[in-house]
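User: Hey, quick favor. My workstation is busy. Could you predict this chain's structure for me?
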Amino acid sequence: MPILNRAAEMQGEVAEWRRRLHRNPELNFDVFETASFVTGKLKEFGCDEVVTGLGKTGVVGIIRGRKGDGATVGLRADMDALPITEITGKPYASATPGKMHACGHDGHTAMLLGAAKYLAETRNFAGSVAVIFQPAEEGGGGGNEMVKDGMMERFAIDKVFGMHNMPGLPVGHFAIRPGPIMAATAEITIRIKGRGGHAAQPHVTIDPIVVGSHLVTALQAIASRNTDPIESLVVSITKFHAGDAYNVIPETAELAGTVRTLKQEVAQNAEKRIHAVCAGVAATFGAAIEVDYDANYPVTFNHADETVFAGDVAAGIAGDGNVRRDMPPLMGGEDFSYMLNARPGAFIFIGNGDSAGLHHPAYDFDDEAIAHGISYWVRLAETALAA
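Assistant: No problem, here it is.
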């Protein structure tokens, strides 16, 4: 079936909520105004229970169906923004310099609020729906904190579903795949200690910039020469800090970056090889190198049955031809992975049209996607909890 008439009617109102959130971005766990706005709306809608402070600043609303007995399905949206200065020039652009909703979490939150309003009005299901509003997806692990706070057990959540917008995918389209859909992430910090000195006498120094330069090149061989080319691996050095004068070879340098994988064994080998490469380069140049390897988000892994179910729900809204069920996995990370580790479920992408890419200062969520997102959430809940 197509998008819900009620969802289409709500689009303007929900777009205003989205633009209000867009104007007032907040980072990490410090989403106090956003969480307050969400809490107020859920209470206004008549949710049976509204709980705040989960995972530090997360919010959960419980909506019970006309037949209260039954399973509980969790629907999750993320609330936090990014430390980026917006350049869209839109009338509702960020009012806070250095912060913006560059990943569409404002749209995710607004769509789930729209679905919560609809479900609280109709209650055409058995059991309960838990609408989950999570802080700190962008590196803080807010999803993990909500799970550790006992959210799944407290609300007896049986299955959990997530959704993210995708630039380049047409509005009204969806994309999903079973198994790994987004990568596990790790952060690496590499500290090099050489011997500083005058830039005119490099022969009496151990130049950490030269050491670091060789290291950046050598680390690329982990993906190209130490990993099966069929497998997916990214090793990217994204920071290189050293020195502050034209005529001084510094004593130290620091590099940092990210590792992305889709399989645990590939991640383990990458970590092992990073340590080995750093040790080898240190021995070659006589420098000392320390490595901190911090495994972060796990792989976002879609459960087989729930992926088929989510794809079928999306096809009922968009049509079979507008749902890609075999999308290639993405090497970005997503902390909905923690919720999928705790309960069966699936993560789906919804089209954002021809917009700037995620995490770009010109990105903006397309409000035309709102009715499609609301319809997906409502139909998923109603179908999963058929009365």
